[in-house]
Design goal:
This protein has 15 helices and eight strands. By secondary structure, the protein is an alpha+beta fold.
Length: about 375
């Protein structure tokens, strides 16, 4: 035996008609609340940048790239000699030192009334819902001041900030998103702000700083080698200059002397000068190779989609908020009235297996009878 529950539309409509005034009052109240909430939230705009970074693949990764694409598998970690692959870019974006560097960005609002750094803009020129200001008055933050540092932590590379600074930094992190397509490695960076021009400036700055960070990381070893060989080349050049000056001075001072001791010393000075020149030439070659290595390790980013000042806001969607509030308000009022009146709005139909079999047998007999009549005709 099976029970089939069916909603009785007629009973539901009767329940609504019986409490129509209550439904209207509930809908008006939730509509007003939804409109107050929607108009209290400031509008926000989103700007997006898409980048296609250069990937560094070795021979093994290149030979398996086609196979991995066929089976939907990514061999980025196996085929790349770069420790920070594109999948780690969102973590780089969310690091505190990266976010703190965004405070110095110079931003300008769309109407041109405000031109200041991003930190001052967040503190003084961003709107907040009225309930945030009310909560700040009722529950003021306890540690607005920066925690004083001491000599034990001054030498450490640590970031110290107050709770207010931390919450503002967290808000910046949430307003910036960085997504990476695992198949194509295309990086999508988005920034949300209350001003459309500020959103475009912010996402462009984040894109540029992320490229700079990755470039500095990937060229760190090569730049260290370049600095080392530049120092060695400068020292070798000074040594060669001293050796050449010593040889020239000695040769000029003993031009008319043909003693064997003079010849030996002159040859020694000449050999020292030649050795210094050879060392200088060797370091010059290594210095040029180091410069080429820096250029080779510098990644190239292709801007697939540049930053654009948004025209339409993305939030809040007041019409959708109002519609959802009305729907949930009606459902809540219906449930309340249903429990209050204890009206049965569900009908239960019982279906037995024997009845089902009987119906099937009867239908089969009718089909057989129809077939026999057809053959007789």
């Amino acid at each position: 035996m099976q029970a089939l529950h069916i909603i009785d539309i007629r009973s539901c409509w009767k329940l609504v008609k019986r409490h129509l005034k209550f439904f209207i009052v509930v809908e008006i109240i939730v509509g007003i609340i939804a409109l107050i909430y929607g108009f209290s939230i400031p509008r926000t705009y989103q700007s997006t940048v898409k980048l296609a970074p250069e990937t560094v693949n070795n021979e093994f990764g290149g030979s398996l790239s086609s196979l991995s694409s066929m089976i939907g598998m990514k061999l980025g970690s196996m085929s790349s000699d770069d420790a920070i692959n594109p999948e780690l870019y969102p973590d780089v974006k969310s690091s505190p030192d990266f976010l703190l560097g965004l405070y110095d960005i110079q931003v300008t609002t769309a109407d041109g009334s405000v031109t200041t750094d991003y930190k001052t803009y967040l503190r003084e020129h961003c709107k907040a819902p009225w309930w945030d200001a009310l909560r700040a008055k009722i529950f003021p933050p306890k540690d607005n001041r920066m925690v004083s540092s001491n000599s034990a932590t001054d030498s450490l590379k640590v970031i110290r900030m107050s709770r207010r600074e931390y919450m503002m930094l967290r808000g910046v992190d949430l307003s910036i998103s960085c997504d990476v397509d695992k198949k194509t490695d295309v990086i999508t960076i988005s920034a949300i702000d209350q001003d459309p021009l500020v959103a475009a400036i912010l996402v462009d700055s984040v894109s540029a700083r992320l490229q700079e960070f990755i470039t500095l990381y990937r060229t760190q070893k090569a730049r260290n080698d370049l600095e080392y060989f530049a120092k060695c080349y400068a020292d070798a050049d000074k040594a060669y200059q001293r050796a050449a000056e010593a040889y020239a001075a000695y040769a000029d001072a003993h031009q008319e002397i043909s003693l064997e001791s003079y010849q030996v010393k002159r040859d020694n000075l000449e050999n020292e000068m030649q050795l210094a020149f050879n060392v200088k030439s060797e370091y010059a070659t290594k210095y040029e190779l180091a410069k080429a290595k820096v250029m080779e390790r510098t990644p190239v980013y292709t801007v697939v989609q540049a930053a654009m000042v948004p025209v339409k806001h993305i939030a809040p969607r007041r019409s959708i908020m109002l519609l959802m509030a009305l729907v949930f308000g009606a459902l809540g009022a219906f449930v309340w009235c249903y429990r209050k009146d204890n009206v049965k709005v569900f009908r239960t139909n019982l279906l037995t297996n024997d009845a089902g079999k009987a119906d099937a047998t009867e239908a089969k007999a009718e089909r057989n009878e129809t077939t026999d009549n057809t053959e007789k005709d």
